[in-house]
């Protein structure tokens, strides 16, 4: 994820534009990647099956593990919890930066990751909004399918 680290060094003053840019990059990567990773898999019947495929198969390809928890309200909102989100764990181990820089770097990794998830799901036929929050025990991604997005 050198692009994230490079981008924080070049744009230290504007975290919002950096996050938007990295989210767009993540979207393009996710959109392309989902074609390659799912071309041998049949299209799934509904959005729940697609989300399960994301949580089990694709998450392993992306982050080397399955998600820890998936919750849904059965109305188009899904919450994915990853207790040891790989991208954030790597930054904690490899970074010798001040806390503020580490928090900003985490925000950029999250922005990239939400774009990645949004790109994957959009290409699989489910346009959505993806938000995330860093919690004490990992990262929670909230996915709202477009039918529920105002």
Automatic annotation (TrEMBL):
It is found in: Golgi apparatus, cis-Golgi network. SUPFAM superfamilies: Ligand-binding domain in the NO signalling and Golgi transport (SSF111126). It comes from the Eukaryota. CDD domains: TRAPPC6A_Trs33. One of its GO terms (cellular component) is trans-Golgi network. Signal peptide: none annotated. One of its GO terms (biological process) is endoplasmic reticulum to Golgi vesicle-mediated transport. It holds the Pfam family TRAPP. PANTHER family: GEO08327P1, TRAFFICKING PROTEIN PARTICLE COMPLEX SUBUNIT 6B. Belongs to the TRAPP small subunits family. BET3 subfamily. This is Trafficking protein particle complex subunit 6B.
């Amino acid at each position: 994820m050198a692009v994230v680290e490079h981008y924080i060094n070049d744009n230290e003053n504007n975290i919002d534009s950096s996050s938007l840019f990295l989210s767009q990059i993540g979207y393009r990567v996710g959109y392309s990647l989902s074609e390659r990773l799912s071309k041998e898999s049949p299209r799934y019947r509904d959005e729940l099956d697609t989300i399960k495929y994301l949580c089990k198969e694709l998450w392993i390809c992306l982050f080397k593990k399955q998600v820890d928890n998936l919750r849904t309200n059965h109305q188009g909102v899904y919450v994915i919890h990853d207790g040891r989100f790989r991208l954030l764990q790597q930054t904690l181990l490899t970074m010798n930066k001040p806390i503020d820089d580490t928090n900003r770097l985490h925000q950029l990794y999250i922005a990239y990751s939400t774009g990645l998830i949004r790109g994957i799901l959009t290409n699989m036929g489910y346009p959505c909004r993806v938000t995330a929050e860093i919690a004490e025990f990992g990262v929670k991604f909230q996915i709202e399918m477009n039918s529920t997005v105002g």
